[in-house]
TrEMBL record:
InterPro entries: Flavodoxin_fold, Flavoprotein-like_sf, NAD(P)H_dehydrogenase_qn. Transmembrane segments: none annotated. One of its GO terms (cellular component) is cytosol. GO terms for molecular function: NAD(P)H dehydrogenase (quinone) activity. Keywords: Oxidoreductase. The keyword Oxidoreductase applies. The keyword Oxidoreductase applies. Belongs to the NAD(P)H dehydrogenase (quinone) family. This is Flavodoxin-like fold domain-containing protein. It comes from the Bacteria. Residues 2-168 form the Flavodoxin-like fold domain.
């Protein structure tokens, strides 16, 4: 049994990401402990206004997200791929919560990084309208960013990826297959 934090990273309340997150949550909760958060329900300032130069009030939903990150052994993020990147609000969630002293810490000389979220794994499930022939290429930069520059930088590794697309052309049969794939991942805690 794993402790799984499941994040629907689509800022819209009705979406394919919502359906995939719901399927994952249902299946995972039969075998694992699951805490689900939906980005569209979270209200916070997305801009890290002062960088790391001054403290910014961390809203309650962001505090809850941080507590869930500490609790989790496995993190699942379901997100659309927009303009080869995460939605702005999801990027804001990362900027506002993966802070120095919480997710990582620099050494006194500033030349080394201590990863403060070790012993956690992740899966990122991405949806995209990119044609299948371009889907992996479209996601490549984001995958590198998340693997090495975000999750890995904080100690969350390894990170696995699942890509679904093109979403705008998906028939109900294709979507059912995607939901089945997510259900299988969830039961295994992947």
């Amino acid at each position: 049994m794993k402790k799984i934090l499941l994040l629907n990273g689509n800022p819209k309340n009705k979406s394919l990401c919502h359906a995939l997150t719901t399927s994952y949550a249902r299946a995972a909760s039969t075998q694992h402990q699951v805490r689900r958060m939906d980005l569209h329900e979270m209200h916070f300032e997305v801009n890290l206004m002062y960088g790391y130069e001054a403290n910014q009030v961390v809203e309650p939903c962001l505090q809850q997200f941080q507590q869930n990150l500490l609790w989790a052994e496995h993190i699942v993020i379901v997100s659309p791929l927009w303009w080869l990147a995460l939605p702005a609000k999801l990027k804001g969630l990362i900027d506002r919560t993966l802070l120095p002293g919480f997710a990582f810490k620099y050494s006194e000389t500033g030349t080394e990084v201590e990863k403060l979220l070790p012993n956690k794994t992740a899966r990122v499930i991405l949806t995209s309208d990119a044609p299948q022939t371009h889907l992996e290429q479209a996601a490549e930069g984001l995958i590198t960013q998340l693997t090495h520059g975000t999750l890995g930088f904080c100690g969350i590794a390894p990170t696995q990826y699942t890509l679904f697309g093109p979403a705008h052309l998906a028939t109900s049969e294709v979507i059912d297959n995607w939901l089945s794939e997510v259900t299988s991942l969830a039961v295994r805690g992947e």
